[in-house]
Amino acid sequence: MTEANTLFLRLEGPLQAWGDTSKFVIRRTMDAPTKSGILGLLCCAMGLSREAARERLAELNGLAMGVRIDRHGTRWWDYQTVGAGIGMTTAGGGLKTGAQGTLITRREYLADASFLVALQGGDAKLIDDIATAIASPKWPVFLGRKSCPPSVPVLARPREDESWTNPAGHDDLNAALDAIPWRPRYRADATLQNGMVETLVEWRPTSEGDVAPDDAEVWYDVPVCFDPPVHEPRFVLRGTVSPTVGEALQGATPAMPRPRADYTKAEYRKRREERIKADAGLCVFCKSPGPRMTVQHVTYRRAGGNETLEDLRSLCGLCHDAVTMLEYGLGMGLDRINPEEPRWRALIIQKRAEILKFRSLEARRRRLTAEEVE
Ligand SMILES: [Zn+2]
Asked: Which of 241, 256, 279 is at the close of a domain?
């Protein structure tokens, strides 16, 4: 029998936002919780300051994370003005004035989403310590942003009568995410497609020479340090599981909500397809046809469904990952990297090379050995 090795979290609330920790003028959310967001939540529960977290992050990062998207939620934007020309109060109590005037920020949220998160690995004691902390958190926990409180207990039991961890243990994250029943929330809840629910599972090399699959996504969300925020990449594989369907959640009578008319993903998808077609299906940077052809926003000014063709550029998955990583490190505003501009060329090439290197376990092993030597 596998020993208890998995902790389940239920993330549900009116709003959630799983973005990077950047200070962008525009803050978007990923479609599922990030590792830095989840570890931040654990640190809150355990009462670890950013400074104290530093000591524990390596251990916590050792837990592999899987996410099941039980409800996607509806994307929603808010619009904030900061300062209004009278200066901004800083965390230290000072007043920040300057030529900047009113700062406009836009933030994106997922409304009414629900995620099942499985954390696996470490020893039974670590899992138990975390579970105890979440059951009785030192500081309030939140779903990615402080303005996003959870609406149900975050610590999820596999079944009401069971302990925090599944006593039988789980072979891997997919088995864990498959073991918990999925419960409908709406009348004719369409989340479950042919009995399957989407998952995002961390990919790790299991033996020397293991290379991440081509369709693995790079998520730059493994926290090395919270203050200042430093992140490392990890691989995430999208897939599905087919859990049993449990009883409907209490009050499961509302109809499935539809996205607001002014924020339709369909419009954006249409514009994205048009852009890729206009670029002859090729990445504007490396001229390859993929894999994972996508588009880069060169500006977020009309993001959310009002994009023009000029706002987008076709990129292959690798170039897009490279550009995204570059943007993480630069305090950019609404206008983003345009991969066609010569000034980005050398930087993008360098990042692409870094990603390719990261994709090889051999390179990782060599890097680790080199660090030991130092
Ligand atoms: Zn490319």
From this structure: 241
Q: What are phi and psi of 362, to 5 degrees?
A: -55, -45
Distance CA 199, CA 43 (A): 24
Tokens in use for 180? 């918990």
Three-class SS state of 126: helix
The encoded tokens of residue 100 equal 């900047």
Write down the residue that tokens 């990042």 correspond to: 351
* CA triple 18-155-247, angle to 5 deg: 95
Residue 38 lies in a domain: yes
pLDDT per residue as tens digits for the range 186-216: 777 777 888 899 999 999 888 877 888 888 8
Strand 197-203 and strand 64-71: the pairing is antiparallel
Same domain for 164 and 209?
A: yes
Q: What is the dihedral of CA 261, 263, 264, 269, to 10 degrees?
A: 150
The answer to whether 332 and 23 are in contact (CB under 8 A) is no
Distance 124 CA to ligand 1 centre (A): 43
CA of 222 to the centre of ligand 1 (A): 24
Query: ω into residue 153 within 30 of 0, thus cis?
Result: no
The model's pLDDT over 64-120, given as tens digits with 9 standing for 90+, comes to 999 999 998 887 877 666 655 556 666 777 766 554 555 566 788 899 899 999 999
Q: Are residues 223 and 291 in the same domain?
A: no
Is pTM beyond 0.90? Reply is: no
Q: What is the count of structural domains for the chain?
A: 2
| Residue burial 147-174, b: 16+ Cβ < 10 Å; e: rest | ebebeeebbbbbeeeeebbbeebbebbb
Q: How far is the CA of 293 from the centre of ligand 1 (A)?
A: 8
Distance 287 CA to ligand 1 centre (A): 6
User: How far does residue 236's CA lie from ligand 1's centre (Å)?
Assistant: 20
Please give the distance, rounded to the nearest whole angstrom, from the Cα atom of residue 348 to the centre of ligand 1.
10
Q: What number of other Cβ atoms are within 10 A of residue 363's Cβ?
A: 13
AA identity, residue 106: R
* Same domain, residue pair 16 and 108: yes
**Which residues constitute the domain of residue 56?**
6-86+101-241
